[in-house]
Amino acid sequence: MSASDAHTADQPSCPLAHGDGLLPDELRAWMVLLAATGAVEQRLRSVVKETLDVSHDEFLILCLLAEQPRTGLRMTQVADLLGRPKTRLTYQIACLQRAGLVSRSSVCGDKRGVQVTLTDKARDLLRETSALLAGTVRQALADSMGPEQRAAMCSLVPDLETGTR
Questions:
Q1: What are the start-end ranges of the H helices in 11-55?
Q2: Using CA of residue 118, residue 122, residue 128, residue 132, what is the dihedral sign?
Q3: What are the boundaries of each domain within the chain?
Q4: DSSP string over 92-134
Q5: pTM of the model
Q6: What local confidence, expressed as pLDDT, does residue 26 receive?
Q7: Please, are residues 101 and 121 in contact by the beta-carbon 8 Å criterion?
């Protein structure tokens, strides 16, 4: 038995995976998704800290910025997209800036606007670690979702099973 099998065997079966409860399929699938997300976040926290030396929330900021054009995003956009308070975000951006992973600049024509962009150092670091981080996500999902959970997810996203859109 591999470590992954042992970990999966330790996991209780998800009571939400079965269709005999009060919840409709969509709510049951949502609960499965939340449990899977929690498992991924828990596993990622330590890997992100070890490989990138940033917090999980700071990592989410880096990921969000990595998917944007090189011009970055305004701080208000980052806060809105991540659902984070602007005051907390200001602290996290300052930490990332001290680490040399993001830069801040004023928005032209808006004296209060602040634009945040990834630095080349951050882009290189994300390229170097992305395979490990993606593998961590895949393994956490595999460990936390069995066939019943995947079936419940298909209730939320019916095309997930077939891969069509």
A1: 25-52
A2: negative
A3: 23-144
A4: HHHHHHHTTSEEEEEETTEEEEEEEEE-HHHHHHHHHHHHHHH
A5: 0.75
A6: 80
A7: yes
**Tokens (6 digits) for 160:** 């997930």
Residue 107 token pair: 């928005």
> What does the alpha-carbon distance between residue 108 and residue 22 come to, in Å, rounded to a whole number?
54
81-93 burial string, b = 16+ CB within 10 Å, else e? Answer: ebebeeeebeebb
Contact by Cβ (8 Å): 75, 86? yes
CATH 1.10.10.10 assigned to 23-144: yes
- pLDDT digit string, tens, across residues 144-155: 888 877 777 676
For residue 155, give the H/E element and its range. helix 147-156
Q: Which residue is associated with the tokens 């997810």?
A: 153
Amino acid symbol at 128:
E
